[in-house]
Amino acid sequence: MNDSVFLKRTIVKHTLWSESLGEERKLRVYLPPGYNELLSYPVVYCQDGEEFFNFGRIATIAGRLILEEGAEPFIIVGVEVNVAVRTQEYAPFGTRFDQYLSCFAEEIIPYIEQNYPVRRTPSERIVAGDSLGGSVSLHLALRYPDLFTRVLSLSGAFYPLTLEWIEDETDLSQLNINMVVGLQERDYQTDTGVYDFVQLNRDARKLLEERGAKVDYREKEGRHIWGFWQKELPESLLYFLNA
């Protein structure tokens, strides 16, 4: 099928006032081919929403998966972030971390569910992120297990504090997480230090599985960049959304 077919899409932009953060938060909502508000749809919530659309090309990928790969039509919600405070919102040691989790679970989810026919069970709600976005997605599932049980993590930045939080859990049998990491991510410089993302992901996988989580894990040739994540997105999405 010609690529132009997949480039035709409906993306609606919203601005939500967050009491938790004390500021506005922008959202992008992708509606699948044949969208009908009388139907109901699984939903993928993405951290770094602008990047998932611009660099991950998730809308184009979604169209291709739905029209060619037999994926069930789904809605995508991209939650945008101010890069200047990203670590403060996404990292468990960040000064805005608790407020961001509250905003996501207690404000963004209800807002979307009031305005779109998304399914409201944890098994039909996926939360996705890259790097620290993968980490904060897991933290949302740990803090709000009644809302989130499916996590899509692209090179998750599972820093030591996150590993400690996983270790404190006793039963994660409700959790289903898809993890991918690039083998060229062993010496990555972040704003808080240099990390071996391969080892951190291996450690997170081990801790999660020991606590009963279902983990779909893969290591591929790749670096800590969107060029790698974009290529891996279709497989990760189909893991959850294959009809």
Structure description:
The protein is of the alpha/beta class and 243 residues long. The chain is 40% helix and 24% strand. α3 (58-68) packs parallel to α9 (226-241) and α7 runs parallel beside α8 (197-210). The chain is built from nine helices and ten strands. α6 links the parallel β5 (125-130) and β6. The two termini are 20 Å apart. It has helices at residues 3-7, 49-54, 58-68, 86-90, 97-115, 132-143, 160-168, 197-210, 226-241; strands at residues 10-18, 23-31, 43-46, 75-79, 125-130, 150-154, 176-182, 188-190, 193-195, 214-220. It has one domain: Alpha/Beta hydrolase fold, catalytic domain (Rossmann fold, 3-Layer(aba) Sandwich). The model has no long low-confidence stretch (mean pLDDT 95). The strands form two sheets. Strands 1-2-4-3-5-6-7-10 form an eight-stranded mixed sheet, sandwiched between helices. It has a two-stranded antiparallel ribbon with strand order 8-9.
